[in-house]
Every structure is written in C-alpha cells, then in structure tokens.
Amino acid sequence: MVNEIDFDKPVLELRKKIAELREFTRDSDVDLTDEIDKLEKRLEKLENEVYENLAPWDRVQIARNSNRPTTLDYIQYLFTDFIELHGDRVFGDDKAIVGGIAKYKGLPVTVIGHQRGRDTKENIYRNFGMPHPEGFRKALRLMKQAEKFERPIICFVDTKGAYPGKAAEERGQSEAIARNLFEMAGITVPIICIVTGEGGSGGALGLGVGNRIFMLENSVYSVISPEGAASILWKDASLSKKAAEAMKITASDLLEFNIIDEIIPEVKGGAHKDIERQAEFIDPILYQALKELTELTQDERVKDRYDKFRQMGKFIETKEPEKSPIKS
Predict the structure, then answer these.
(1) For 9-56, how does the pLDDT look when each residue is reduced to its tens digit (9 = 90+)?
(2) In this structure, are residues 176 and 202 in contact, taking their beta carbons and an 8 Å threshold?
(3) Where is the CoA carboxyltransferase C-terminal domain positioned along the sequence (predicted)?
C-alpha cells in the first residue's frame, strides 16, 4: 500500500512543524504567530514547487495511494438517492464493480465504477478492484437498463486491470470485456467516463467507451503497468520509473494525444487530501458534459462516440505499389 510518497516528505514535515507550533502557541503564553505565518508562506511555495512538477512515476504513486477516493466516495458527494444493484444474472455479484441508480441534481442517472479497498480486509473483499467477468456483465446489465429507461451513464474508472486468474479466464474474461466494448459503442444514452486513479488495460476499457472521457490530474491510463512494461522491455521491473516516462500515461500526455477530453484538477497533494473538495472539482465538468450530451439525439450520441474513437491514433496513406511488368 502507498500511503505517503518520498517526494511528499518535505511538505508533510513542514505541515507537521506548523501544527506543532500552533499547538504550542495554544497551550502556552508564547506568541509564535509571525513564525507560523512565515512557515505557511514557505509551505505554499514548497507545495507549488513539488506538486506542479511531478514526474510520471510520482503521479503513478499518487494514483495508487490507498486513501485515494473510491467510486462509493464520489457517489456520496456527487449524487443523491443512490440505490446499489447487484449481480449479473448469470453467475454472481462481483464486489470489484459497484453500480446502481441515483439522481444528479434531480436527473436520474446510472452510476457504475471500480471499487478498491483501503485496507487488506476490504481489498480482499473487493478483489483489489480487479473485476471478474461477472463484474463486467453486471456493468453491462446496468448500462442496458439505463438505455431502456433513458438514464445517462456515468462510469468511474480505477483498476489495476481485469483479474488475470484461472477462474476469470474460465468464465470468459476476454469475451466479457470485448462484449462491453461492442455494446457501449452503440448505447443511445450519454456515457461519461472519469478516470479517478489507475486506468489499467482491458479492466479499464470495459468501463471506458464514452462520449466524454475525463481524467483526474494525478490519475494514469495505460495498456499495462509500468512494472509490467519494464519487465517486458528490459527484463527488469525495477526500471518501472523509466517505463512510466516512456509510456506517456499521464493525463497531460493523453490530452495531447486526444484520448481524453479534459483534465480535472486535483487538490494539492492529491484527491485523497480532501475528498469533498475534490468532488466539487468534478461537479461542474460533469454537469457541463451532461448538459451537452442530453441535448443531442440518440443517433447523434452514438455518432459522437463513434467519431471520437475513430479519430484516435494516426494513419498514413500510401500508394499501392506498381505491379512489376515481369511475370513471375
């Protein structure tokens, strides 16, 4: 588990020092107000230096922080009247994906997202946020229900990836993810996807085909983890920092590549520092996206989503080579 990160240490130590001085001032007759003010100005400057110049690997560590807000945290602050729905009607209920119906500013919506745990016990219960096939099938069932009742769909993406175990493969892991990609492409209601932590491989894509895709500032989105990439490329997982830089997995990289539509800013130090305030950062962007998409017709939403994904990547057209006059 990642709780506090090395680059974060100077900031944390200065915050601790300020808290100690405040406590000392409160419990004694010594007035240290001037000293505290100076340290707070120094803290503000230090926070700007540290948090505005993060390396890709630093952002990976923040995205993995065990205290980072989960789907259920955001549901608590962004939605009302949430009712969780369970099961895929085929095998069982996957605790790594949560979903249900709720209201967003009075508008009925369907909310679906990966769900991690914060401690060992909860992570085991949630399978560390790595879904089995029944998780993706549950998500698709809720999406189809949303389409039937014309409810917008909001997906929160935060997973290391789909569960790679034998049982998941036996129950059709690849087919379940592929089915979600296929079906989400043609769903007629608005789909908004927000990468809140790690967006890992097919596990993220299974909830990631949307009209709008947003990323939190310190989240990452990748086809494989930096450790996995380093193991494949250089046969050395310890080179994960180098891999993170080469893979272009940060929000700014993906915005530049037109994979995502917008970066959602985070509170200084990461979303886990103030969950309620982080939800306030998400709120206006979510509202604007819903406003734009609900004004489109069903066919326009499907075309909008289709065009979005067709425009990803670069294509080079070449002329067909001339046939040789010499017969072989």
Answers:
(1) 666 677 777 787 777 777 777 777 777 777 777 776 666 666 777 889
(2) no
(3) 35-292
